[in-house]
Amino acid sequence: MTDLLDARPAAPVVLAEADWTVRRDAHQERVDGWLTGHRERRSRGRSHPVEDFLFEYYNQRPYQLRRWHPGAGVVLAGPAAEELLGWRGYVAVADGVALDTATVLAARAGTVRWVRDLLAATAARAGFFGCFGLHEWAMVYRQGPDELRHPGWPLRMPAEDVAAVVEERGVRCEHVDAFRFFTPEARPLNVLQPTRADQQDLEQPGCLHANMDLYKWAYKLSPLVPSDLVADAFALAREIRQLDMRASPYDFRALGLEPVAVETPEGRAAYAAEQRTFAQRSAPLRQRLLDVLGPLAALVPEPPAP
């Protein structure tokens, strides 16, 4: 196997300055459309449970999302590319400026391999569409009004009725990063007890959180992953979050979010239908990310067997 420190893209793509600066400017304009409201709310000390979630829950800062990266194996030509030499991981090459893929991979080999394996395992599974978004209900189960994750927003029904829905239907959530926000009283009601250790064994493509997390995996492996893919994953995660909140026990109608009443048969059917649509839309994004990580992982030596 090729030594990691000698890894180079087999056939680098050279982009003329006129081409890549158009892509960069389009990316920045797209992201600015998402950032305007977020920055204005921050200046007033306010938060939006949908629009700000991806900035507050995930640890990608707005300026990082706005910064455009071409991805591994791309050379940017022209004087404007010299700006990237001040960014970590970029070096001057014969035709311009490029990411030093070998050096970046050397520091992130384990993450590249782990994320590739997680996404491949998820893509290979059938989607499950019977959770009906009750993870959000488990996050408020048996909590007092001062303990809710979204203070200032009312529940759609009394807390006792929320608890009754959870107890009657039970919860089936495979996603560790949703499960970890369950209240202590709700955790035993979940069919599964997911942990980080079994994440690759449990994650499936019908899960809203698994599909939102495509954004997380894309940005965590930036600048190896091109920013166009990161932005596409952000855009879809933003839409998925709307369904996540509409199906929650909170009342967000003041924000224009009509509830999906998963406490009713009609609401559960509507939720599952939207969940299937998001699973279908997420599949090509997951594959695009795998298409980036697969060749990179091939340059990473496998760890020795224990």
Describe this structure in words.
It comes from Microlunatus capsulatus. This is 3-methyladenine DNA glycosylase. It is a single chain. It is built from 11 helices and 4 strands, in the order E-H-H-H-E-E-E-H-H-H-H-H-H-H-H. It has a 4-stranded mixed β-sheet. The longest helix is centred in the C-terminal third of the chain and has 34 residues, at 265-298. 49% of the residues lie in helices and 5% in strands. The chain has helices spanning 17-43, 53-56, 62-66, 101-123, 135-138, 159-169, 176-179, 199-202, 208-220, 227-246, 265-298; strands at residues 13-15, 74-76, 90-93, 96-99. Helix 9 runs antiparallel to helix 10 (227-246). The protein has one domain. Strand 3 (90-93) and strand 4 (96-99) form a beta hairpin.
Shape: globular
Helix content: 40-55%
Q: Rounded to an integer, what's the Rg over CA atoms?
A: 21 Å
Low-pLDDT residue spans: 1-9
CA-CA gap between termini: 20 Å
On the 0 to 100 scale, the average pLDDT is 92
User: Which structural category fits the helices and strands?
Assistant: mainly alpha
- Biggest beta-sheet profile: 4 strands, mixed
The number of strands is 4
Number of helices: 11
Count of individual domains: 1
Strand order of the largest sheet: 1-2-4-3
Run of helices and strands: EHHHEEEHHHHHHHH
Beta content: under 5%
Organism: Microlunatus capsulatus
Protein name: 3-methyladenine DNA glycosylase
